[in-house]
Write a structure and sequence with these properties.
heterotrimer, A alpha+beta (about 375), B alpha/beta (about 500), C alpha+beta (about 150), B: alpha/beta, Alpha-Beta Plaits, TIM Barrel, 2 domains, 3-stranded mixed beta sheet, C: about 150 residues, alpha+beta, two-stranded antiparallel sheet, two-stranded antiparallel ribbon, 5 helices, about 20% strand
Chain lengths: ~375, ~500, ~150
């Protein structure tokens, strides 16, 4: 049977996320627990998490998480990495053996820093170099797959139910100021760990519930700029779109949101002056990055989260607050599992971006 | 004059029990097929003149008329088909190049008919256009590669000039001269009402139609007929016509007989002179020359109008399009070889060029491979016949489609393919005043508006089925297409999978 | 009131209006049955030459001179403004024909006068000449009378 990436597999999903605006650290146990009430939204074929602020001791290094099929691939990949990076630490990612998670690949992480001489020679900034190396490995190195590549953040994913994946990766041992989670309901059995979510590039991570109808329009456009959609998943293309709009084009989060979930023309026409001009401009400038069809996403980045629904709101998503914390989930039950006393639970409307950031002063010490 | 080797192609079948001798057929046939014999007290037919335009059939109040294929046939021969035999006879009697009109009738593959469209089931919802917004608005024009901000950090929202269309369809170039004043009036009025654009073709713009300027594309072709500053200023966009799908590699030819009155004035050439556009633009022998013309036109119009470069789909179209994209053009228009024409040498029409589906797929891919697809818009024409053709073209990668034959059909054209005779009984491809008046633009524009509205509804239904509620999410969305009965090579060029995959 | 108007710009001189009129007032269900082999006496007539043609029918004047001149009282103006003819009272004197400034009246097959009643009395409801005009040269509409 064909592996994910060779074919496109639609899937339904559950998502959840939490962030502390004060930058207070939370163990990963909570976010894993929040997925339990949404068990029915997954089918055991993929679960995963992304944590931000989890590697304070290596916060200046890119944390590369990789799956390897075998030792030879790992050795080859390591020698490739050494051509571009200084590797300050390499280790197996600690896991727990549990009966519900099987057939695991070799799971490693590397804390790396791009070689400065190389950056000068290639005339690239370090993020671009990291992004290119990640895509090169994922595209060309069979049996090796980078599934996390940001600074002071990490993704953990596997084939299984999300709560079991949390247990497997010992999430309770990590502490982060924000977490996102994903449980997957693919329509068939890819059985491949790389296909689970979140999908990440650099410190950007996306968890997504939906099946977008604009997929190939988006993919074929974004691939013009060096991105390779090797997995053929929505989450992958959305991550690249966000990277392109924010890092490469320099749009703000809200601007990027009004590209991918653009207001209808009828709405724009009713708007006033600058807002109208801005929205019209963004739609006309990036028409091929409009995403249609159902989606609810949580976009994670250093210091914040953004929640966004498609403009018709074809997927459920609610937001709640409690003290310094903001919660986002497919269902209120997930939020209640994390914090029973959550207040102000509301459902953002379609296309309405909810951006939550850790306060600037708090970011200094996370 | 000797023997006429060619038997009439059609037979006029008149039901004598129904015929009331009202003689409408006689009055309406510019080819003078019908006549009334006082002596015999009956209508007569001269079938040698009949082109099967069906004007008489449509107007006969008792439905007494039928035009049928003449069953008198040559001895069957799979190699020497009847058309070939007749063409030999015709050339043997005249010694001339054969002329034809409208698109090629030859049975070349129509790839649109080998492509199927997707719909949503279970994993994502289809969208009902009757209940939810469904957007078909399209902008055509150049897009910069990067955004820019002012010193305060605000987005600079000015874009290069754009064309706005309410739906991804435009009426493609048909010159005043090749078609009638009333046909132009119908196209101009319908475009204005629909919020789309029509195209003057290379015959200039009649002074009466300057008021439809915001919905007009003014064309600059190799003959430069009717081109002056006011003309360039008049339209919403300027199109440089390098080639036409029906006759790649040659120019246009409007016989002096059609250069009468306003046509001569609009073209700015003396009455009765043949209007012969050269095969190439004599100031464009290479791609760098094209760039100069593009920028000359932009200079002349203060960089306020997008410039379209229209080319015929030929073998090397991907590389040509890439060159055009780098030559300052805002929009590339590609015309496939099944496209129509008012007159073209038959051999060229039927044998030169490539199908638009393949040209579009390979141009779109090439521009993407080079990372410049986002910088230009792509318009395709050359036999876009219905709403599903439009949807397939957009999904293959086009921004919009050009239609002309379908528009003429809406105006009454019956595809008799004798436009070059100048005796169009439907008042479209003619300059004879008594025939021109047969096309009332009130009716013509209404029918064009109806046609486009019908297509827009169908486009919206098809989009909704796919779960897409805005046309931009359909553009280049090839995953929504599957081929049926196509070879691996054809699928590869089209960039789509086979049905079942 | 709604009247029949003709725009000569779009009149093709096809004469279909005449046949449609004759058929409409024939009372027959089929045009071939109604008109085959017969001369027609329509209430609308196409006039003109090879340059210009237009169809002429009753204008239903505000103050119809034909009504005033009818010696038999056959012509009258209805409350709605339609100039009507009572066939049984017509004596065939043709005074109306002579006085009509538009030449809109003509005798029928029986030699008595016949005229356009806007297809209001033959059960069609809409003038047949208008419905059958291929180029919308004949219209039936409300216009301000100057």
């Amino acid at each position: 049977m064909e592996k994910e990436g060779q074919i496109r597999i639609p899937s339904g999903c559950a998502i959840a996320a939490v962030i502390s605006t004060e930058g207070k650290l939370m163990s990963g146990e909570g976010i894993a627990r929040s997925m339990i009430p949404m068990h029915e939204r997954s089918n055991g074929l993929g679960g995963g998490f992304a944590g931000y602020g989890i590697y304070p001791e290596y916060k200046d290094f890119y944390a590369l998480h990789l799956f390897f099929d075998d030792r030879t691939t790992r050795k080859n990949c390591e020698s490739f990495l050494k051509e571009y990076f200084e590797i300050v630490q390499s280790e197996r990612i600690p896991t727990r053996t549990i009966p519900l998670i099987t057939d695991e690949p070799m799971i490693w992480r590397y804390f790396v820093s791009p070689l400065p001489s190389l950056l000068i020679r290639l005339q690239l900034d370090e993020k671009e170099l990291v992004a290119r190396c990640v895509m090169k490995i994922n595209r060309e190195m069979s049996g090796a797959y980078v599934f996390s590549s940001g600074k002071n953040m990490g993704t953990f994913k596997a084939v299984g139910f999300p709560e079991d994946v949390g247990l497997f990766y010992r999430l309770e041992e990590y502490e982060g100021y924000s977490w996102t989670a994903h449980g997957r309901y693919p329509t068939n059995t890819p059985g491949w760990w790389g296909g689970a979510h979140p999908f990440t590039l650099l410190d950007y991570s996306v968890v997504h519930n939906g099946e977008i109808s604009s997929y190939d329009a988006n993919r074929r456009f974004i691939e013009m700029f060096g991105y390779q959609c090797t997995l053929q998943t929505d989450t992958e293309v959305i991550t690249y779109i966000m990277d392109y709009l924010i890092r490469r084009q320099g749009l703000t989060l809200k601007e990027a949101a009004s590209v991918i979930a653009a207001p209808f023309w009828s709405t724009i026409e009713a708007e006033k002056n600058e807002e109208k001009e801005r929205h019209a401009y963004l739609r006309m400038m990036f028409p091929s990055l409009l995403i249609t069809g159902p989606f609810s996403i949580v976009f994670g980045f250093t210091g914040g989260l953004m929640a966004l629904n498609d403009r018709l709101k074809l997927r459920s998503m609610v937001v709640g607050e409690k003290e310094d914390k903001v919660f986002i989930a497919s269902e209120e039950a997930a939020i209640r599992a994390l914090e029973p006393d959550t207040e102000n639970i509301w459902a953002p409307s379609g296309g309405e971006a909810v951006v939550v950031k850790v306060k600037e002063e708090a970011m200094k010490w996370v | 004059m000797g023997i006429d080797y060619i038997v009439p192609e059609f037979e006029v079948v008149r039901n004598e029990q129904r015929c009331i001798h009202c003689r409408v057929c006689e009055r309406q046939c510019a080819n003078e097929v019908h006549s009334y014999s006082e002596e015999a007290g009956m209508m007569l037919s001269d079938e040698t003149r009949c082109v099967n335009c069906q004007r008489c059939v449509s107007l006969c109040p008792t439905r007494a008329l039928k035009i049928v294929k003449n069953p008198c046939s040559f001895r069957e021969n799979a190699n020497w088909q009847p058309d070939l035999i007749k063409e030999v006879y015709r050339q043997a009697s005249t010694g001339g190049v054969l002329l034809s009109s409208m698109g090629t009738p030859k049975p070349y593959p129509v790839y649109w008919d080998r492509i199927l469209i997707n719909a949503s089931q279970v994993t994502n919802p289809s969208i009902d256009p009757l209940r939810e917004p469904m957007e078909t608005k399209v902008f055509l024009g150049k897009r910069p590669e990067k955004i820019s901000r002012d010193p305060e950090g605000n987005l600079i929202t000015k874009l290069p000039p754009q064309i706005t269309l309410s739906m991804p369809v435009m009426f493609s170039a048909m010159s005043y001269g090749s078609i009638s004043y009333n046909a132009h009036a119908s196209l101009a009025r319908a475009s204005t009402k629909l919020g789309i654009l029509y195209n003057t073709g290379e015959g200039g713009l009649h002074e009466d139609f300057y008021r439809y300027g915001p919905n007009t594309i003014v064309q600059v072709a190799s003959g430069r007929f009717g081109v002056h500053e006011g003309y360039l200023e008049a339209g919403a966009a300027i199109e440089i016509k390098m080639g036409q799908g029906a006759k790649p590699g040659i120019g246009g030819h409007l016989p002096g007989a059609k250069i009468v009155g306003d046509v001569s004035r609009t073209r700015m050439i003396p009455e009765g002179t043949d209007a012969i556009s050269p095969a190439p633009h004599h100031d464009i022998y290479s791609i760098e020359d094209l760039r100069q013309l593009v920028y000359s036109l932009k200079e002349a119009t203060n960089y306020e109008k997008p410039v379209i470069v229209k080319v015929a789909a030929v073998h090397n179209i991907a590389a040509i399009a890439s060159g055009i994209a780098r030559s300052g053009a805002d929009i590339i228009a590609i015309d496939g070889f099944r496209g129509g024409t008012g007159a073209a040498p038959t051999r060229i029409r039927d044998n030169v060029g490539i199908p638009i589906e393949l040209a579009l797929a390979s141009v779109d891919r090439r521009l993407r491979d080079e990372g410049i697809r986002g910088n230009v818009s792509l318009v395709v024409g050359g036999s876009i016949r219905c709403a599903s053709d439009v949807v397939k073209a957009i999904a293959l990668g086009a921004d919009a489609c050009y239609i002309a034959t379908a528009a003429l059909l809406a105006l009454g054209c019956h595809l008799c393919r004798t436009c070059h005779s100048g005796k169009c009984n439907w008042g479209i491809a003619t300059q004879r005043p008594d025939l021109v008046k047969r096309l009332n633009p009130d009716i013509g524009s209404e029918r064009l508006v109806n046609l486009m509205n019908a297509w827009r509804h169908e486009i919206m239904e098809l989009m909704g089925g796919m779960g897409i509620n805005s046309i931009e999410a359909l553009k280049g969305n090839r995953l929504m297409l599957r081929g049926v009965g196509l070879s691996g090579k054809e699928l590869e060029i089209l960039g789509i999978s086979h049905a079942g995959e | 009131m709604k009247r029949v108007y003709v725009n000569e710009e779009w009149c093709l001189g096809c004469h279909l209006c005449e046949y449609n009129c004759a058929f409409a007032n024939s009372g027959k269900p089929n045009m071939a049955v109604a008109l085959k082999g017969k001369s027609i006496f329509p209430n609308i007539h196409v006039e003109g030459d090879d340059k210009i043609t237009y169809a002429v029918s009753c204008r239903h004047c505000e103050d119809p001179i034909c009504v005033r001149s009818c010696i038999a009282g056959a012509l009258s103006k209805s409350d709605a403004g339609v100039v009507q003819i009572d066939h049984s009272r017509c004596v065939g004197c043709y005074t109306c024909l002579l006085v009509c400034p538009y030449g809109a009246l003509a005798p029928g097959a029986d030699g008595l006068m016949s005229k356009c009643e806007l297809c209001l009395t033959n059960g069609l409801g809409e003038p047949a000449c208008v419905a059958g005009c291929p180029n919308r040269a004949i219209v039936y509409e409300e216009r301000e009378v100057i």
